[in-house]
Amino acid sequence: MDPLTAAVLGLVQALTEFLPVSSSGHLVLGQALLGAHGDGGAAFEVAVHFGTLLSVVVVFRAEIRRLLRATIGALAAPSRFGERWRDDPDLRLSAAIALGCIPAGVVGLAFKDQLEAAFDSVAGVCVALIGTGLVLLATKLARPGAHEVTPGRSLLVGAAQAVAILPGVSRSGSTIAMALFLGIDRDLAARYSFLLSLPVILGATLLKARDLAAAPPTGEALVALGVGALVAFVVGIAALVLLLRLVRQGWFAHFGWYCLAVGIGGLVWLA
Questions:
Q1: 137, 256 in Cβ contact below 8 A?
Q2: What is the pLDDT at residue 69?
Q3: Buried b / exposed e across 152-175, counting CB within 10 Å, b at 16+?
Q4: Which of 61-65, 81-85, 206-210 has the lowest mean pLDDT?
């Protein structure tokens, strides 16, 4: 994969990671259209995801600091954990993030090879995009709520994130949709979705780094990975800020029409 192709795919990743349209699905379709399918493979997919991971860290840096401070404080004084749990919403949100990561971690480790093979099926991605579109449109039926992310709700949102490991299923779309169906506040649903992505993407990156250590890419491939990750990071910051604004304004469900169009268009293109 040449650096220009890597930059284009990194741009696609950044623009689609935070919008509920499946970045992984767009990467598979983009690689097929550009003739780069299989050239860099899952390693490139993880590299550009890591770029957008850094975007989340930058945008949510203040909230991440609060969550870490609350967690460290609770661990440092276990005798006061019950009191802190009752009075500190940051501690409860931190625990919800940890619990919500469990389903994706279990699925990712148990079905690693099968999930990577899914990136080779362009038709499967198109079908998954159609399913994502239907789920997004269904959120119009969700009643507005103001619930907190409880342990039970966090596991259900985490299960939605586990399903979204499949390319074509939007991670942000599935997790925000599940949160809305559970009556979680719209703004909190978006923030929780993106904070929930941090441990999962970091874990996937470390897992792939272990595989790459056994068979390191060539110097040219490393340049492409770096270019893709850099573009995804820079553009991802702007895309994340835009998406948060759109979710607050109630534009979330409208992305379903886009997913349906891309999924159906892809199947027509393959026919």
A1: yes
A2: 94
A3: ebbebbbbbbbbbbbbbbbbbbbb
A4: 206-210
How far from 121 is each of 27, 105, 168, 173, 194, CA to CA, in Å? 12, 23, 10, 21, 27
Q: Render pLDDT for 89-116 as a digit per residue (tens, 0 to 9).
A: 999 999 999 999 999 889 988 887 788 7
- DSSP secondary structure string, the chain? --HHHHHHHHHHHHHHHTTTS-HHHHHHHHHHHHT-TTSSHHHHHHHHHHHHHHHHHHHTHHHHHHHHHHHHHHHH-GGGHHHHHHH-HHHHHHHHHHHHHHHHHHHHHHTHHHHHHGGG-HHHHHHHHHHHHHHHHHGGGSPP--B---HHHHHHHHHHHHHTTSTTS-HHHHHHHHHHHTTB-HHHHHHHHHHHHHHHHHHHHHHHHHHHHHSPPPHHHHHHHHHHHHHHHHHHHHHHHHHHHHHHTT-GGGHHHHHHHHHHHHHHHH-
Lowest model confidence (mean pLDDT) among 29-33, 72-76, 192-196: 29-33
Whole-number pLDDT of residue 67:
95
Q: Residue 132: its pLDDT value, please?
A: 96
Single-letter amino acid code for the residue at 1? M
Structure tokens, 36: 């780069």
Task: Tell the residue number behind the tokens 């026919």, with chain if given.
Answer: 271
